[in-house]
Amino acid sequence: MSSVVREGLEKRLQFGSRTLKHEADVFQHNAWDNVEWNVERSAEAAAKVSENSTPLLSRQEADNYERQSSFYWDEFYRQHSCGFFKDRKWLFTEFPELECFIGSANDHHVHPDQCKWLLEVGCGVGNTVIPLMQATAGSELRFYACDFSSVAVDLLRRNVAFDANRCNAFVWDICDEQKELPFAERSLDYVSLIFVLSSLDPSKFGQAVANVVRCLKPNGLLLFRDYGRYDMAQLRFKKGRCISDNFYARGDGTRVYFFTPEEVDALFVKYGLEKDVQSVDSSYVQVALKK
Q1: pTM to 2 decimal places
Q2: In the chain, N or C terminus with fewer CB closer than 10 Å?
Q3: What spatial distance separates the first Cα and last Cα of the chain, rounded to whole Å?
């Protein structure tokens, strides 16, 4: 077993070890493992959100964030490069549907007809696709990776761990249905949509999901994870940052929405997906959906 795969498996054993021992510490982290989200905590969180949701930004301010969204994300990656997000080595724990590709005995010369294809939407600088490529080296899994930011895609391509023989990285605004993609519709086995949808204006959720769903072949899987309602990130927003209900502008100009499980279910069912497995905690909404 390679050192990369071994490290990933060791990380999996450690995942889920953050337990809340003292009630006073509940707001010290964005997430705790195995903590009951009771009525009292929910009421306290709702009060914080009600407080930080007024006043709303003006329509002019909100429109400006929308018009300059690509600029803000490009600036984000110019400033932080590859150093902001941690590699998502928890993916195989949270999405065991991908475990079958770990430590595969196949060599790199897999026949094209045998390949399985995964599209990572919102790839950024590669904090998901790079660990996936490393952990599944030698398997039949191949990748497409796209992002709204051309700066992010360029940084990914220049990463020394990026394998152009297994991954095609390109720029795509998933709200754009006219974009010519490097693969046929209904041809992909997996699509990952992890902390991406929340960055869009809620009015564009439907178009984005419709575009992504068209990429999946019948019985393909969409792997979704995003911010849940009352995540600590939402509770910590100050007044004057709220654009609309549960939708906020960060200080760097990027935006974030906080979902309920019911919203996620309704959105994906509307566009032809069936819930396979869902996991919800006080910070995140996560679901695997089948076409």
Answers
A1: 0.83
A2: N
A3: 33
Residue 182 placed within a domain: yes
Which amino acid would we find at residue 223? L
Query: What CATH number does residue 154 fall under?
Result: 3.40.50.150
Strand partners, 257: 247
Residue 1: strand, helix, or coil:
coil
Write out the residue range of the structural domain in which residue 186 sits: 3-30+76-227+256-290
Q: Backbone phi, then psi, for 248, in 5-degree steps?
A: -130, 155
Q: CA-based Rg of the chain, rounded to a whole angstrom?
A: 19
Alpha helices in the chain (DSSP H): 3-14, 39-52, 59-67, 69-80, 91-94, 129-135, 150-157, 205-213, 232-235, 261-270
- Would you call 129 helix, strand, or coil by DSSP? helix
Select the more confidently predicted residue: 278 or 151.
Answer: 151
The amino acid at residue 288 is: A
Q: What is the pLDDT of residue 1?
A: 33
User: What does the pLDDT average to over 215-240?
Assistant: 94
Structural domain includes residue 232: no
Tokens of 66: 């929308």
Count of domains forming the chain: 1
Beta strands in 30-173 (DSSP E): 116-121, 141-147, 167-171
Instruction: Report yes or no on 260 lying in a domain.
Output: yes
CB 34 within 8 A of CB 40: no
Please give the Cα distance from 279 to 15 (Å, whole number).
15
Spatial distance between the Cα atoms of 151 and 251, rounded to a whole number of angstroms:
20
**What gap in Å lies between CA 241 and CA 252, rounded to an integer?**
11
